[in-house]
Write a structure and sequence with these properties.
Layout (H helix, E strand, L loop, with lengths): L1 E5 L5 H5 L4 E5 L7 H17 L2 E8 L3 H4 L12 H10 L4 E6 L2 H4 L3 H9 L4 E7 L12 H8 L4 E5 L3 E2 L2 E2 L2 H9 L7 H4 L3 E10 L2 E6 L9 E9 L2 E9 L7 E6 L9 E12 L20
Parallel strand pairs: 1-4, 2-3, 2-5, 3-4, 5-6
Antiparallel strand pairs: 7-8, 9-10, 9-14, 10-13, 11-12, 11-14, 12-13
């Protein structure tokens, strides 16, 4: 997979060197089951048309620039993790657009002209609630009009599980309330954080990307994986803890060497560690979320 970083105004050399593609559109935080359906749909069309499969995403999250409502500064999948997931899903080209006030001000028609048609998009695929352009005035119905016959458009309808819309917002609620055991139903797998494991006395620390969204303060059962090695442990999340560090206690002798890259899968909430602005595990309608 080739990653192309794009800034506004998009360079003509990037457009000239682009390849005809089917393009999946979205922020894709978490790359959950709904996101995977969008990318799989785009891949099917790309295979049928013998075109490259492309994804266009943004970084940082638009809420940090537009500053309306909750600002998302921590991610279920930081950009580097998202890249690896896209590659596993068969994506050939990843366009990462730097989201700033200049991009936010681009009218919807100009966005389509420059960022889709300009990058040789031959077919665009996005979720039913995808919006684009200045103040989000572009939606999937508008995309058909803005395409003006230059490329096809496919809308992927809402995916629901247990009467809940599968979304990054739902996953954020589950994570920030410690309800990690419910995540696989919507994500398709356990919530996973990648980091470096280091021994410190009789306990361990995992050093992670500071962009990760962490569960609410408390103790959690986790599974650690490195290659074929797997073990269980308890991870503590502390309010006000050092950024990018987590404390871990293992249930068994740890089979990993020091400074080992590991995947940590969040299994279950065990107990509150520190009561913060909200109590972990409360129902969604009783929560007061602070992003």
């Amino acid at each position: 997979m080739r990653t192309i970083h794009v800034q506004h105004p998009i360079k003509k050399t990037i457009q000239d060197n682009s390849e005809p593609c089917v393009m999946a559109l979205g922020f894709f935080d978490g790359v959950h089951l709904g996101h995977q359906e969008i990318i799989k749909t785009a891949k099917t069309i790309a295979d049928q048309k013998n075109l490259k499969l492309a994804v266009m995403t943004f970084f940082p999250h638009p809420s940090t620039v537009i500053k309306k409502g909750n600002q998302i500064t921590r991610y279920i999948t930081p950009l580097s993790v998202k890249e690896r997931m896209f590659e596993k899903l068969g994506v050939d080209l990843l366009y990462v657009t730097a989201f700033d006030m200049n991009v936010a001000a681009v009218p919807h028609k100009e966005f389509v002209d420059d960022y889709l048609h300009g990058l040789k998009c031959r077919h665009a695929v996005a979720g039913f609630d995808y919006t684009y352009g200045f103040k989000g005035k572009g939606n999937m119905a508008q995309l058909n009009l803005d395409a003006d016959g230059r490329f096809g458009v496919t809308t992927v309808e809402k995916l629901e599980k247990y009467h809940q819309k599968v979304s990054s917002t739902l996953l954020r609620q589950l994570i920030t309330t410690g309800r990690v055991e419910h995540i696989p139903s919507y994500l398709g797998s356990r919530y996973e954080i990648q980091g470096i494991l280091c021994r410190q006395g009789h306990q361990y620390r995992i050093y992670i990307d500071n962009d990760y969204l962490l569960p609410s303060p408390g103790s959690y059962e986790v599974t650690l994986k490195s290659g074929t090695l797997i073990t269980k442990g308890m991870c503590e999340v502390k309010s006000g803890g050092a950024p990018g560090e987590l404390t871990l206690h293992t249930f068994y002798d740890l089979p990993f060497d020091d400074d080992t890259p590991v995947q940590m899968l969040w299994e279950n909430f065990i107990a509150d560690y520190d009561m913060d602005a909200f109590h972990a595990q409360l129902p969604f309608d009783e929560l007061e979320l602070s992003m």
